[in-house]
Design a protein that fits this description.
Length: about 550
């Protein structure tokens, strides 16, 4: 009876028969795939260009993480959680402490990664992203040490002759190939799983138009057929390649006795605001209001000689009704700029109105102490929200919802006559200019496409939200030092106005994952992961039993 028990005790369990070296090498390969694809996200967070389109690595990153989780569980079952490892001698306690630390880090990486694919938003999503990235980076050093310390266990599967290992090496690499084979399908048919490919399709920003020109304002025509840029002059294009140019007389270098555009820019004489009313175009500059009967025609001065105009708004139902946020206060013209009336009653600081915009038939203005709406019956401005330092308005695609953008309070949305505070896209980009140490806020404007919102001027350059402002992430790098100020979406690209010209980024058009896609990926990862463990977890290589795990 005792001999029978002794004989049965010598038969190892199926888990004990798995080779520690094969499991460890498999984890190294899968971790390398996960980290390699994860570099795309890390580079974007650092503001660097990425070498590949984000959607191409999205599915591979998730799949390799799921398969890697299967191998982590298999290795834990094989090695156990005790100081002693069955079948392996000379294991030191400090070696096991490193292994346990890696187990905690990998668990945090996998769990946070799984949670990130759930429909979470806001601060919760942002915290999970930070946890996923930080634990991945933290795991890099101990993993590298762990692999180097135990490299001899994996060497037989890498460099030993086939005849010495028999069929073990061939079976192992067949298992690895089977485990990673679905990655090819995920690259050929990519899905926009994470936020990054949902927001962009290009790999980095490129300087596309008007190189060397200072561009401060950017917008599209009402029908979306033209892109209008303004700064040292007024530019318009229908294809993003060929541009027409119009210059106000005060900025025209051909005008005798006038300063050159570069000197005028240094003095602050640039175009800051553009508005289109029917065929007419109006531009606001530090030298006053200019206009023309059509784009491409010479601009002439209409009003406010040497009086800065910061923002313009035209009634969408009446192209002749024009509002101007000037240094003298908000001005209104009912006749396309021929006559003007100052309407400042109710504002706290009427000479400091920074933004003015229509939302439907309602007109709103910001004097940096709040957002006000013009009430015609009372002939006065009425405060609607105490949001401070609003520097820009943006109207949603429906023409009714209004976004108010502030470097202090973030973004608020006017929807169904109610203001809602959205999550903050990030800290504004600040820089000190001049000997007096004047702090300038570079926070610019917003561009929208459905639920996607793109914000310019944060410390990250361009920050974007795929869910209407609930969750924010940085988009592609390549704008470092360019100081993006205004954004516009034109012909499937996001355009950014900068002091160096116009930059362009292709927007995301990859399909979103569907429930069948998720079911197929999860089932394939778990099924092939278990099959690869069984196929590739080879019996121990002769002579390796005395080596530490």
């Amino acid at each position: 009876m005792s001999s029978a028990r002794a004989g049965s005790a010598q038969v190892p369990s199926p888990v004990a028969r798995l080779a520690v070296g094969a499991l460890g090498l498999s984890l190294v390969i899968l971790v390398c795939v996960a980290w390699g694809t994860g570099l795309v996200y890390l580079a974007t967070r650092l503001g660097l260009p990425v070498p590949v389109r984000p959607a191409l690595v999205d599915g591979v990153h998730i799949y390799s993480g799921l398969v890697g989780g299967v191998f982590v569980v298999a290795k834990v079952l094989r090695v156990g959680l005790r100081h002693r490892v069955p079948g392996v001698a000379e294991v030191q306690p400090w070696q096991r402490w490193i292994s346990w630390a890696l187990l905690v880090l990998y668990a945090a990486v996998v769990v946070s990664g799984v949670l990130l694919v759930l429909p979470l938003s806001g601060q919760t999503y942002g915290n999970l992203v930070d946890l996923h990235l930080l634990t991945s980076v933290w795991a890099l050093l101990p993993t590298t040490w762990h692999v180097w310390h135990y490299r001899r266990r994996a060497m037989p599967y890498l460099g030993a002759p086939w005849r010495r290992l028999g069929g073990h090496s061939g079976r192992y690499w067949l298992a690895v190939a089977i485990a990673l084979a679905p990655s090819v399908v995920l690259v050929v048919a990519p899905r926009a799983v994470s936020q990054l490919p949902q927001l962009q399709q290009g790999t980095s920003w490129t300087l596309t138009a008007l190189p060397g020109h200072y561009v401060d304002a950017l917008m599209t025509s009402a029908d979306g057929s033209e892109l209008i840029a303004a700064g040292d002059a007024l530019y318009a294009t229908r294809d993003g390649v060929s541009w027409t140019r119009a210059v106000p007389p005060a900025l025209d270098p051909s005008a005798e006795g006038q300063l050159s555009p570069a000197l005028d820019i240094a003095d602050g004489h640039v175009i800051h605001a553009v508005a289109l009313g029917g065929d007419a175009v109006y531009v606001g500059t530090n030298a006053g209001l200019f206009g023309a009967a059509d784009l491409g025609q010479p601009l002439r001065q209409l009003a406010f000689d040497r009086n800065a105009v910061r923002s313009l708004a035209i009634d969408p139902s009446n192209p002749a009704a024009l509002w101007a946020a000037s240094a003298s206060g908000p001005m209104f013209s009912p006749d396309a700029g021929r006559t003007w009336t100052r309407l400042a009653n109710g504002l706290v600081h009427p000479t400091e109105v920074a933004a003015i915009a229509y939302a439907g038939e309602r007109i709103f203005a910001s004097d940096r102490t709040g957002v006000f709406e013009w009430a015609a019956p009372s002939h006065a401005w009425q405060r609607r929200t105490p949001q401070l330092q609003v520097v820009a308005f943006a109207v949603a695609e429906d023409g009714v919802q209004l976004y108010a953008f502030s470097p202090v309070d973030g973004i608020e949305l006017l929807q169904r006559d109610r203001w809602t505070r959205l999550s903050n896209p990030g800290q504004p980009h600040l820089h000190v200019a001049g000997n007096g140490g004047h702090i300038h806020v570079d926070l610019g404007g917003l561009a929208m496409a459905g639920d996607r919102i793109y914000a310019a001027g944060t410390q990250e350059g361009i920050t974007a939200s795929p869910d209407g402002g609930q969750t924010w992430t940085q988009v592609a790098g390549g704008l470092a030092g360019a100081g993006p100020m205004q954004l516009a979406i034109f012909q499937g690209h996001l355009w950014a106005a900068t002091s160096r010209g116009l930059y362009r980024l292709p927007l995301g058009h990859d399909p979103a994952p569907t429930p069948p896609w998720w079911a197929a990926v999860i089932a394939t990862a778990l099924g092939l992961g278990l099959g690869s463990v069984a196929l590739g977890g080879l019996p121990r290589v002769p002579g390796s039993a005395r080596r530490p795990v």
